[in-house]
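Database export, one record per block. Field names are fixed; values are copied verbatim from the stored entry.
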Amino acid sequence: MSTVRKIIRYLSPYKREAILATILLALVVVMDLSIPRLLQVIIDEGVAKKDMNVILETSLLMITASILSAAFMVGNTIFAVRTSRGFEADLRESIFKKIQTFSFGNLDDFTTGQLLTRLTSDINQIQLIITMTLRMFTRAPLMFIGSLSIMFATNFQLATIMVSLLPLTVILVTIFVRTVQPLFTKVQERLEHLNQVMQENLVGIRVVKAFVRKDHENMKFESVNDVLFKTQLRVTQLLGIFFPIIMALLDLGTVAILYFGGLQVFAGTASVGQIMAFINYIFSTMFPVLMLSMMAGQISAANVSANRVMQVLDDEPEVRDKSESVVLQDVKGRVVFENVSFSYEDDGGNHVLTDINFTAEPGQTVALIGSTGSGKSTLINLIPRFYDVTSGKITIDSMDVRDIKMNNLRSHIGISLQDVMLFSGTIRDNIRYGRPNVTEEEVISAAKAAQAHEFIMSFPSGYDSIVGQRGVNLSGGQKQRIAIARALLVNPKILILDDSTSSVDVETEAKIEVALKKLMNDRTSFIIAQRISTVLKADKILVLDQGRIAAEGDHWELMKTSPIYREIYESQLGDGGLNK
């Protein structure tokens, strides 16, 4: 199915409004085409014959036609705007909902700036064309055909003069469209790049200030902005060259009609009224061509935008439910990795994880430790199916996670990710994000377990305190504790804490560990930590090295058997770990 047909489907709910807009526009054309004919009658039958009655009656008909044309145009505008704005809202909502279905792999293919541009600028371009189609583009061919037909019926010889200009006009329009369309593609791509640079700068403005990189960021923005400016300027220059040429052709046609029409008037084969009507019909014939030429750039831009929008809508989630997927019942929380390997690449090359095998029994705490890039976060992202394994399988209670409905699977997993994301709203809303209908007591209980209750109550509005954009008014440790509370409130059978206490002090971390210890008794927990003190009491510790499990055991076993673990321990806590 072509891109246009796919996009047009979103107009289906507004078919009635679109039809009414088109009918009203056709009536506008009928009224507009009647006016030059009435003008001819006034001149030939009224003025030439000095018949005041004809002048008054025909003038009244012209006024009526003008009023009806204006009324029909108002109605057309109302229905056209309803159609285009409804289409725009539905398409934007469809894209947003589609993004929500994407797995992490899909999101890796699009930058934030790309998605924002497609949700805003690209959709606006398409909406603009829908509006123009219902208000102008439909009118243009009707005006063109109607005017040309009346011209031939009125004066065949003069009509042929007009038609002789059309091939040249069509050639110019074709050249213009083919030249400008690639430029509109570049405009959208460079606008996307500009949005990406701007979004990164706004998110990282504090880092920019901290490292005194304002001048560097200004130069970077100026560079991409200048590239966009030059591309847009090139498009504008082409428009500025093209339109005067078309207008010159229109003027040439007018002069030709006046000259040859004048000769016919002198010869008595044409009337002055016919010539006046003809001049009006020249504009009625050429104006649609000029209008379509003016809109050719917009059409090209909309076509580019439609293709970019459909890239998102056509992108299938890399991780999805099977048709026969099942629902987990009475979850115990036994997690098993069997010969699991994973690659971010589609062809399966460059494995990030290789031959991962281990079992986490219900209620166990499994800690993952290793150097940066060893695959710790990737490993835990496979459990809730943020990504699917490249080979091997992961089971929960002997059920392959790929056979479980994703919503059901994730409802049994509480996650505090490495990059804490808080949403605008109150602290309470952020804590109960996963379970919006919980009681106040449950919210407070989760906050206390995460050692967040005390600092929350120190705020004047307590749990009703507003969280700034991305939690800007909270410290890193405070954000992490709210994220832990959010994960705990889901009451999961499997708990994942990805380096979730890295920003809290050692004393607070110890309190969190004590509170979590009670909550972890009947949960299978996975903990990633940079501080080795966090993992000392774990039931099982996995030492990852270059995507493989280099060692497995508890603290005392690893101190005796794993040089990598012992090196990490001694580098952080010093010697002495060998004595129990």
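Remark 1: Residues 214-267 form the longest helix (54 residues).
Remark 2: The chain has two domains: 3-314, 331-411+526-574.
End of record.
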